[in-house]
Amino acid sequence: MSDAQIRPALPSDDGVLGELDRATWSSLHAVSPRPEPPYGPFFDERHRPEDFLVAEVDDERIAGYIRVARPTPLAGNGHVRQIQGLAVHEWARGRGVGRALLRAAALHARNQGARRLTLRVLGHNAPARALYEAEGYVVEGVLPGEFFLDGVYVDDVLMGISLTD
Fold first, then answer.
1. Tens digits of per-residue pLDDT, 78-113?
2. 41 preceded by a cis bond (ω within 30 of 0)
3. In whole angstroms, what is the distance from residue 125 CA to residue 118 CA?
4. What is the Cα–Cα distance from 72 to 91, expressed in whole angstroms?
5. How do strand 61-69 and strand 152-162 relate by DSSP bridges?
6. Which secondary-structure segment (H or E) carries 104?
7. pLDDT band at residue 59, thresholds of 50, 70 and 90?
8. For residue 156, which of 164, 144, 165 has the smallest C-alpha distance?
9. At 60, phi and psi to the nearest 5?
10. 45 with 81: CB under 8 angstroms?
11. Rounded Cα distance, 54 and 8, in Å
12. First-last CA distance in the chain
């Protein structure tokens, strides 16, 4: 099991989380181009510290993060939270950090009154899909060929879990 401690992100985590985001960029999960310098801040008006949880291990090194936010500003789906990013440092993989972040995200969303937690994952990202399925997420829809990445059309897989069970 994980030795990770999960806590809310702080504004002072900006630099470390930006470095983590760049270090973990991969066409396996990213639909945007690889970040290039000059790098902007990690947090901005759309990506606020209060939307992130971070995992710390060992000597309080940040091992990963997860972003949990409302999918839209509409009142009609205020009962839904969406995972809009999950990253784990390569050195921390295989230690249960991703699983701990997913579980913390579900608790965080439930504490905000959410009844559902959803996410989107690229169809070719087998490791992430296996983790989500192991944590109880089910495929709720597939957008075939939604993205054209590295010369290949890739499905966008919509997954979700009930928080009321």
1. 999 999 999 999 999 999 999 999 999 999 999 999
2. no
3. 16
4. 34
5. unpaired
6. helix 97-111
7. confident
8. 144
9. 65, 25
10. no
11. 6
12. 23
Chain centre distance of CA 94: 17
Q: Which of 152, 148, 151, 130 is nearest to 139 (CA)?
A: 130
Distance CA 164, CA 94 (A): 29
CA–CA gap between residue 147 and residue 134 (Å, rounded) = 25
Q: Which residues pair with 64 in a beta bridge?
A: 55, 88
Global pTM reads: 0.94
3-state secondary structure 6-50: EEECCHHHHHHHHHHHHHCCCCCCCCCCCCCCCCCCCCCCCCCHH
**Residue among 80, 70, 68, 91 nearest 20 (CA):** 91
Contact by Cβ (8 Å): 118, 80: yes
Cα–Cα dist 150/99, whole Å? 28
CB-count exposure of residue 27 (10 Å: 0-12, 13-18, 19+): middle
Q: 81: closest CA among 121, 57, 108, 42?
A: 108
